[in-house]
Records
---
Amino acid sequence: MTQLAIRTRTTPAGPVVELTGELDYDSYTQVRELLPGLALLEGQQLVVDLAGVTFCDSSGITALLAARNHALAARAGIALAAVPGHISRIFHMVGLDQVFTTHPTAQEAEAAWTPPSTHP
Amino acid sequence: MGESGDSESGDHRPPGRRPEKPSGRDPGADHAAFSALLEDSAEDLYEHAPCGYLSTLLDGTIAKINTTLLDWLGYDHGDLVGRRTFSDLLTVGGRLYHETHFGPLLRMQGEVSGIALELKATDGSRLPVLVTSTVKTGGDGQPLLIRTTVFDARDRRAYETELLRARQEAELEREELKRLNATLQQTLLPPTLVNVPGLDVAAHYHVASTDMVGGDFYDLFPLSAGTWGLFLGDVCGKGAAAAAVTSLARYTLRAAAVYDPDPAAVLGNLNTVLNHEYNGHDPRFCTVVFGLLTPEGGRGGFRITLASGGHPPALLLRADGSADHLHTPGGQLIGVLPDAHIATATVHLAAGDTLLLHTDGLTEARPDRARDADRYGDDALLDFARALAPTTASAAVAAIRDLLDTFGTGVDDDTAVIAINVPRPTSEEQP
């Protein structure tokens, strides 16, 4: 069994989910089950920090897409932070580099977030 | 279990098993009351205890045996005492076990407990029992005799038989599940590949687990005006849910190709269907390569237009011995976005050229099998193809099969491969 460790923290910009380990068929349900409990407000940004992910297969991608659907349903944004080279190659191959906003670190993702404007 | 408290309280219980009286009363009075009730002598307890007792001499001869055990077996006191040994009461197997294990252990340790044996009754029936023996020694430490208690283990044996039956049933059900999985898998693949004139075709499906249906699929089928459709894909995940998507993808692709055979349009249709069907917290998607094969009359060979939705690049193994990826950059996963970008590439397949499509079960295999070993990878597969070229469809698929065999359990996902090759003219093969 592969191990996936998940840590969640809250920032003013929204929740940050840090994944460490292998994101595959054995572990992706952990991420999917976490999503409904995430406090994500409209206009916030969900950041998934992939710095510690050593492997990501199609099930791992399913988990990230589920996170994206969750964020979009909450009218929030989603950004990936610290995407390792092996995952960016997969993302490029499956065209997801055009779907996810990415940042070198979770801090930069947080800094890039702009609070929703109060006027329409 | 179905037993209720009521039925238990209705059982006949020996007086000694009555619930304790509340404390706080005069212990002397209690004792007298119990004694009157019990009417029990040590002798009576020995003879009619709820378990069998026997004492044997060191050579096994029965010296004393209680009524309970005699009744269980159907003997009279005189049949056994001084005449038979404990071993005589056992079945043949039990006797062997008694000689080789029970006896030596008893001599060594002075006691043996909870050994399961079978006793033979006079009516020929067998009584499963649990036997405990201790050696009684004299003041000088020398063994005098062996005391043995015998517990009726029929209930326990029945329980074990029941467990065994349940296990056998579970194994049967698992076999049945495997059979169903295999059948379901077969419905997702063409039973045989059609014969395309002027083309040599071979395919292989590697099942990683017989417990779970995989999500890989491929097909090759005729379209109008002498053209052919070809696809190979991989649905994310495995199991019944993935198989449902695989089935939907396969039939949608075939129907879409009849409606409009343009490869990008075919994948665009599949994308719309999957995107409408699966959304939310359980997104389902697939990666697919769809190819339209058109024979090129004058030039010979085939023109192949490939469209890819996020699928690993096909490999092109040329007649001149070179090999390379046939990239379709920017093609997106099918089913994720309402308007996925589909990338296309067109290539001419001439005599001696082979096109190989595969799913990522091959490149994501761990050749060293260890859970954290490195994956095989796209680069290694390209090197493998370069060593293989020039080749034929069947030789290429056979080589991939052999490669998968060397990975063994390192392949944790299903793998599909299909190869098409334009055979060299026969005259070239016989120089």
---
Amino acid sequence: MKILERLRKGRKTSSGKVAKERLRLVLAHDRAHISPGLLDTLKDEIISVISRHIDIDADSVQVTISQSARESRLVADIPLLSGQRRRR
Amino acid sequence: MAARIFTVTSGKGGVGKTTLSANLGVALSMTGQRVVVIDADVGLRNLDMMLGLENRIVYDLVDVIEGRCRLRQALVHDKRLSELFLLPAAQTRDKSAVTPDDMVRICEQLREQYDFILVDSPAGIEQGFRYAVAPADEVLIITNPEVAAVRDADRVVGLVEAEEKGPARLIVNRVRPDMVKRGEMLDIADVVELLAIDLIGIVPEEPEILVSANRGRPVALSPDGSLAGRAFHNIARRMQGEDVPFLTLREQGVLGRIFGFMRSGGD
């Protein structure tokens, strides 16, 4: 019984780690004064601008705020559709 | 002799600002420094109780500002120590009675006669925070390993930078090594990484802190009586530029605490 419990507990992420991840996200938004909603808007507009010129995989685009020390940057990860996939 | 002015602040209330201010005042004066601690929490005066000086107050900060007494007359001498003085907050007024210029003027007046001035800031980021930070040469931000306290501390880090009083230094208070070990509490490294400022102190959660508040006798008065007391003394030494290693906190019941304490005593 105890072993099972321990195994289950081991699989669950510890609350300390959860706290850290939640804080990492919320601090990035706080510092940049960018709400999750604004980030979504930015993402949609970036997709529409770029799609006008090149083919991208719109569903896999990720726009995030990255943090190193106290510097924030907006990071857009935009996968391009390869020529092969386009031909298909 | 010109004092260095430190402001203790946190954003969130109840994380240990006043306890820290009282204990740093005690620890600094025990190393022979001349110290004034200023209670800047006008309307919610508490530093006097932490120091056990609540029955000795005649005048307060707002009396000085409004000219009802001289600065010297408002300073309460802590008789347990030769060179520790409290400038109490007014209890029946509010934060609008004090401006940043008032605080700068008072601290500059004190600067010539003392080595350290500690300003105990009110919680929040409004007027009280602003006038408490205005005179600071350096800012100490205290937080707890807990999401709300860390988020608020981050706001304050940014505001201190905006006021060109940074970089602030960090104290993590109320650390519970047993919970950290189980992964159920943010550890010190997490908090430092998230806030990205230099660490100047780690203080464990200990029942002795509450007992000392009950008695008006800060734990730093007997540095060998508790780990927290030692932690405060270490911070006081770091504030004087000494390179002091951080305490290793460990806790496995009473025995573990005793052995951990003895071992860290040998560091």
